[in-house]
Amino acid sequence: MTFTLAAGLGVADDHPGAAAHDPGRLLDPGYWLGAVQLAERAGFDLVTLHDRFGPGRLPRLDTSLLASWLAARTAVIGLLPTMTTTHTEPFHVGKNLATLDHISGGRAGWLVAVSRTEEESRLVGRGHPALAVPGASTERPGAGAERSGAGDRETSGDLDGELQAEAADAIEVARRLWDSWEDDAEIRDTATGRFIDRDKVHYIDFTGRYFSVKGPSITPRPPQGQPVVVIPADSPAALRTAVDGADAVLIPAPVVSDDPAAALGEVREAQRRHHRRGAALKVFADVPVRLAGQAGQPGTPEALAEQVTDLASLGYDGVRFLLSDQDADLPLLAESIPGLLRARGLRPDAALHPGGTLRTRLGLRPAVNRYGPEADGDELTGEDSRLHRSSPGTGEQS
Amino acid sequence: MTRAHAAGRQIILGAHFPGVNNTTVWSDPASGSHIAFESFRRFAQSAERGFFDFLFLAEGLRLREQRGVIHDLDVVGRPDTLPVLSGLAAVTAHLGLAGTINATYNEPYEVARQFATLDHLSAGRAAWNVVTTSDAFTGENFRRAGYLPHDQRYSRAQEFLDVARLFWDSWPDPRIEPGRVSYTGTQFDVAGYPGVPRPPQGHPVIFQAGDSAAGRDFAARNADAVFTRHGTPEAGRAFYADVKSRAQAHGRDPENLKVLPGVTFVIGDTDEDARERAAAIRAQQVSGQTAILLLEHVWNRDLSGYDPDGPLPDIEPDLSETTVFQGRARQIDDRAAEAARLRALAREKNLTLRQTVIETQSRQTFVGSPETVAEALIDAVGTRVCDGFILVPHITPAGLEPFVERVVPLLQERGALRTEYPANATLRDLLGLPYPGEAPA
Ligand SMILES: Cc1cc2nc3c(=O)[nH]c(=O)nc-3n(C[C@H](O)[C@H](O)[C@H](O)COP(=O)(O)O)c2cc1C
Predict the structure, then answer these.
(1) Contact state of A99 with B79 under an 8 Å Cβ cutoff
(2) If 0-12 CB within 10 Å is exposed, 13-18 middle and 19+ buried, where does residue B307 land?
(3) According to the model, what pLDDT value does residue B7 have?
(4) Cβ distance of B196 and A27 shorter than 8 Å
(5) Which residues in chain A have Cβ-Cβ distances shorter than 8 Å to B286?
């Protein structure tokens, strides 16, 4: 079994005092490259890049573009920028991440976010679009068509429920867009003058409660087929969205420190209850890191390694270290943790495997194209349903 | 070579990554991937070796269709503009990075933030080509689905840019608190903080590529550069005079609005050699199938039953509003007149259908020996046809290389192109443009 190590970068905004020195450095991609290379050299599988619309104490580059810059300068590590499903067009999300996957040679992932604040909505000049839907949807072309979205689940009409149902639809759209070109659609057939075989490029015809997207993507299928989709399970509705469409779920740090076994059980139960299709969700625990002697009690690398080992033995698939003081803690973490975990038998092979995709590193199966010849003909919405139909929710436990 | 031009005007050079139309020849053995990042890296690095000012990416947000199915004869598909430019910022050092981004299917806050990010990632090399293409066809891919009436496209684009500029201006220094933007207009009602401090260039360089009166006025008022199709001497001079005088009417120094036609080129050992190559390339660009499809733009009918090696269709064009093709920026205004013109030409020169299309649709702008081409470029800029060129090669990714290897040294020799990049230059510096807020030079 693969145990995943991730580093959460750029979370410092939520940490008081983080703005203390030279905030301008955060605008220099070289600063981020230094951090990502530290993680890469220490054998981390991926980094997530924290982002959101609107203000913070600190400057914030758009992480989807920062990730593409970093992709051109790194070789092995997975790169997961944050993109919001509340305000960013799903079509843009799909091609942006597909392109990151092309640039990085199959190392792209998506840290899915919803934008819950009024402040974020004001930046794009609307109220919460998810709540404004009923009137608006009737004016849209195709609104009368049979809906195919994942948002057909019951929502209690509360904000989070709506935003998460919309997120599930956005993920579904991105996934269909990624599959909308079969891998061998480009044929360059001089005899017939055709560059593509148009029968291998597919409309996605998504019609949902929040938006409709015709497709196909303008960007051919990314190297991974499906970049890795990760959702923080920071509410019950978010967990449901993860069950519907993510590859991995992040358990928030307070939940992890409270009762990690119960949290894991809840994820498993949710997968059974909602009949998750395909492989089981990977479950990662968020673990805050305070190794340097800043505010609060610093921990020791040994204690951290102990905590991670405990999580692994409970059945977690990995951890994401949240680095709220990235400058101080990342070097300490990178230098100590790989060796400590190796000594505990958790990462017997910490060596990097250049050339592999992020999916491979995380132990995810190759993504089968839902529109391709290997897809199950009558099941176009679930990821890779053909392979895992027999055991919903419990797929890859070994 | 004389030094007569040494005191002449500098030529601005842009490199257009080959696009999704029949200018791009994919059947040539030299043609590589138009998706792999390696192709973009190689293309950008050859532009940088040639001391170009910028690389340019076009955008289309829905795959083109003809007769109701996806058009399959040209290169199809491309990666996303801004992530590609961000990747290129990491592997180039001097080259400007210009991206086409639509003002209809985006929100100003998000686009402002992304261009500010690209400008930081590239230390001041970002440019935004603001386009307004907005048909219902493309809208089917977006949340906002709908499209704008033609006359509202530029009012949205204007407000879009106004709002973007408010965000760029509102946080001049990361060490101080950001200012709050608040805007209410007919198209947008937004408020909040920018997230990204002021980009190194103040604002990214603004390009515009519309041709209508409203489009030209938008450029005259807002743009640092216009990307135009008017590359021939007569049409170019008329366009140049028109947009420069429009800029002046808006109280701007016309020198601060650069006119840059998109042009094609074929370099040969001699002029004769270049002409032969050009003819061969035109034949590659217009296969029999492509000839039929291009002719359908004029006839607005399904012509698939016609023989490309036979005569032009004998039926008349369909003049109705509904078109057989979708997703193309360019439309033919008077189909009947165009059909009559093609028939006259075919009669006069005794041409087949395909030959007629080759003859009319894809003449390269500059064809000749390196000396001839260099001279023609210098002449065009010297006589105010334009301020420079956006070169559109026909081969991905190596198509720029003959120009870089053979024409660039001549331009440098004649003092029309830099021989090194100035240290730490932004794209504004390369183009000689003022910074926002600066008094006109
Ligand atoms: C040289 C040139 C290049 C253009 N490139 C693009 C492009 O890449 N993407 C796009 O959506 N529109 C493109 N356009 C379309 C224009 O930006 C504009 O939306 C269109 O010409 C309609 O505006 P108009 O009525 O003012 O001409 C281009 C136009 C010109 C003249």
Answers:
(1) yes
(2) exposed
(3) 52
(4) yes
(5) none
Set out the domains of chain B in order of their start, with CATH numbers: 3-269+366-431 (3.20.20.30), 287-361 (no CATH)
Chain-chain contact of B83 with A188 (C-beta, under 8 angstroms): no
Partners of residue B126 on adjacent β-strands: B97
Give the confidence band of B66 by pLDDT, cuts at 50, 70, 90: confident
Q: pTM of whole model > 0.80?
A: yes
Average pLDDT, chain A: 86
pLDDT at B316 over 80: yes
Identify whether the C-beta of residue B319 lies closer than 8 Å to the C-beta of residue B300: yes
Q: Are strands B181-184 and B189-192 parallel, antiparallel or unpaired?
A: antiparallel
pLDDT at residue number B242? 97
Closest C-alpha among B174, B180, B168, B176 to residue A119: B180
Determine the pLDDT at residue B375: 98
Contact with chain B for residue A99, Cβ under 8 A? yes
pLDDT tens per residue, range B227-261: 999 999 999 999 999 999 999 999 999 999 999 99
ipTM of the complex, rounded to two decimals: 0.94
Closest CA to B277 of B399, B162, B149, B156: B399
Cis-peptide, bond into residue B108, ω within 30° of zero: no
Residue written as token pair 């955008």: B59
β-bridge pairing A206-207 and A194-196: unpaired
Give CA–CA dist B18/B25, Å, rounded. 9
Structure tokens at B399: 């198509």
Q: Which atom of ligand 1 is nearest to the CA of B214?
A: 26
Q: Please name the residues between 9 and 68 in chain B that touch chain A, using a CB distance below 8 Å.
A: 26-27, 35-37, 41, 60-63
Q: For chain A, give me the number of helices (H) and strands (E)? A: 13, 12
* Nearest C-alpha neighbor of A232 from the set A288, A285, A160: A285
How distant is the alpha carbon of residue B87 from its chain centre? Answer: 20
